[in-house]
Amino acid sequence: MAMVEIRDARKVFDGGFEALRGASLDIEEGEILALLGPNGAGKTTLISAICGITQPTSGTIAVGGHDVVKDYRAARNLVGLVPQEVNLEPFEKVWKTVRFSRGLFGRKPDDALLERILRKLSLWEKRGATIKSLSGGMKRRVLIAKALAHDPRVLFLDEPTAGVDVELRRDMWDTVAELKREGVTIILTTHYIEEAEALADRVAVINRGQILLVEDKDALMARMGRKTLRIELDEPVAEIPAGLSDYGLRLEDDGRVLVYDYDTSAERTGIARLMGALAAEGIVVRDVATSQNSLEDIFVGLVHDGQEEEGVA
């Protein structure tokens, strides 16, 4: 049984806007899932439905086997949520803020656990500081500490490093990796594609309320991530010679560059044969350069393809 099970979840708001349109997804225990999608894709609505903040109009969602509607308390006790917005009481101290969050879930005081959490997040020295005195990055850490205070088994991170500097972002990546090692299931939404590449085990792409794809990150990169060879010519050509028609080449930069896409996982890339064919056609190569498709390229392509299927320009 998956830790989070989503079956045909739909959410229609007043006025008829359909934020979720039959989303289905299984999230396994102890994995990090990156949930990617453009603004308005349904990411926050889906998270809100799983966390019990909003109820799905139809379909079912379960956390740890507990239905989020029928068995709300049991499901919610398993979940920690780090929201995108920093909404903290500015004059409260860090320690009391985190301690209070644990109490909200009816858990008995456990100062030793809270100390471990604060030390893990480099907040222990700030435990007596007021929230308003903290930097933006430290406030984000307090949000994570609050979410972890009741020892959840599922942690949602909604844009956790938005507005955080690069160094602090890397520190938080280390924290997320450590939580995974402890068996916490983590669902991450992010606009930083490199964050998904660095952390995720699997990637789910959502757009217009539908899950377009769920796949192992490395398999996705291997299946869809292709390399591109750009061949700069010594002299421009008006068109691709007939002898090169089998290579699927594209002509760019006013005939000065030939572009060749190839699969890095294939037994043969065809590059050596292509170079021989260029020489046979009397085409002199000035320079070559390769580039690897990133997860961002794949993501943009999936979203674009999904919009084209719906007739969206």
Automatic annotation (TrEMBL):
Domain (ABC transporter) ranges: 4-233
SMART domains listed in its UniProt record: AAA
Keywords attached to this entry: ATP-binding, Nucleotide-binding, Transport
Record has Transport as a keyword: yes
Pfam families in the record: ABC_tran
GO molecular function: ATP binding; ATP hydrolysis activity
Domain of life: Bacteria
Name this polypeptide is given: ABC-2 type transport system ATP-binding protein
